[in-house]
Amino acid sequence: MANDQPAKTNLQRAFDDKHLRLEKIGKTEKIVYVAANVSEKWSDPEEKVRAAFFADLIYLYQYKPETIGVEVRVPDRTPHDAADLVVFADANQKTPYAVIECKRDGVSDAEFLQAVEQVCGNGTWAKFRAKYVGVVAGKRRRYLDFTGKYELFERATNIIADLPRAYGKPEEYKFRKGGGNGFRDITEVPREELQRVIDKCHQTLWGGGKMSPPAAFGELCKILFVKNLDERQTKRGEFYQFQIKTHEKPDSLGARIRAVYAEAQRQDPDVFTETIKIDDAMLYSVVEHLEAVSLSKTDLDTKGVAFERFMDEFFKGNFGQYFTPREIISFSVEMIRPEAHQTVLDPACGSGGFLLHALDFVRHRATAEFPNYEDDTEEAKDHFRYWHDFAKNNLYGIEVNDEIARVAKMNMIIHDDGHTNISGYDALESFDRLKEANRDLKKGAFDIVLTNPPFGAMVKATEKSEGYLTKFELSRYAGKGDVSATQAGEGLTDSSIQAGKRAIKARSSVKTEILFIEQVYNFLKPGTGRAAIVLPDGILTNSSLQGVRDWMLEKFKILAVVSLPQHAFAHFGAGVKASVLFLERRAAGVAADDNEAIFMAAPENIGYDATGRKTMKPVSRTRNGNTETTVEGSELYHIEVVRELVGDDENDPESWRETGRRILPDTGILGQFRAFEVDAEPFFV
Length: 685
Description:
Number of domains: 4
Shape: elongated
Helix content: 25-40%
CATH class of the largest domain: Alpha Beta
Structural class: alpha/beta
Low-confidence stretches: 478-501
Mean pLDDT: 87
Distance between the termini: 47 Å
CATH superfamily of the largest domain: Vaccinia Virus protein VP39
CATH topology of the largest domain: Rossmann fold
Oligomer: single chain
């Protein structure tokens, strides 16, 4: 049985072994480097980076504490300067071996390069000449070799993969799958750290406006895919390709990364239609940001939350129609509760948010079914098959915009796959044509449809192929002010005549959301198929659309209507008032019952406001040893967040690392709906 206690970090070991200690001086907390007899302010973010790397020098790089200088004055340097950390070749600290500059995590490329110049100036000063220098800023590291032939102003050909261990020679590589023999493996990271890494990549690619946000997003997707593919293809004991080798120039690294990407293009040409467009220098910087991070080991929750902010920026403005806030998505998925054997479709999938959350829901189910999957080999296989087969065989998406469809595919790949059945196509096309995109896109084929279709756009018959609109029954329902619908019954269907609805010949233009309602019905299995669909409130309230509502009541059992506040989509440039409808397709011949109870709710706090700022309110907080559990809530649901103590100061937020989060299904409107399912009495929340 694996040890449930998390492995100690090197920083924790340094505190335990008394190489570091914290002490209060007045109201100020200081960290003391014991062997160096130096104390510094612990609240400084750069100090936390220095302390962590000081511990790495002892336990990872195998240097004795008495050989490590802290805040070492560089002689005769003008202006007066001090090196953050110096590894000396002797315990008397007379001969510098390596000089290290520490910066807070998240510094910009310009600040990082400035730090490189600073450490090179200190480490190559005539009276302080070291063999190696380096800059440490979180997981981003750069080390330079100034032994032998390298000139004082060289900054490219003398970059090495890692600082030598125990005064040895630099290794060619830093990261090897599985680690061992002095090498490290790449590691999973907490949400906050992954978010910082993604932000730094975006800063590098965006370059202060040199690339547009969509272009920067597209390039990052390509690079992340190469990273993900390399992690999966590299065998245990082999070195990763996605890393900077010792003395490697940007053009050499660029060629290697592009070769991996070219293979991906060959395997999946529909996803990767363009080459990597950024230059080798920029690619070098992005690899430097990402090389130490494992995407495949980092759990889906962490990746989802960390990528959300980057996705937010991309989908604002012109791309807002392709993005649905994760709070709305997660709520809808929790209401529907997909199961691993069910087929799930989003016919307007945008970036793939509904599909990713459905996958995440099933992965949590897999963990509940196979709780020992991390310790038991057979359970691990069953756990993987449970969710991976669902991702590969049961998740389907359709997106009319080819560029966004590729984004959805790459998003699914980065978040543990499920991209196989995403099609760049018009979901409103006839089913004969939809089969050209994917033969599984048939009428009555899907257990669940989750979607936020585009609002407001008019589909004009003149812009589409012949028969495009006439195949939709809803295109015939007359609105207020339409011409008489009694022209010898022209355009009337049998069902509309029986229901006494007014109808006319097919209109020349119809709003997309109306057509999507009917297409969702077509996709669902009769009698059992369920849907969560976001619709503008005009569908529910406009008198001119009474015929549409009558049609819906005839075709669907309305399970729930959750009216969203006005600001639900304001952050993405859409001010339309909308609701989420939860529907079940009626079986053939089953008529609507006037006594059917419909769950209704109108939350105001849905977890964010009109600016996108999070509004989850704290509900409770408990600590049990080194574990902290907090519950945060909106009117939709509460979230339980678990963090573990990884630093030495339990009162410092940076000492806690998030290890998991989950929606509590019996809270908020979710819990009220569960009670309603058991006893479906009419009421309004």
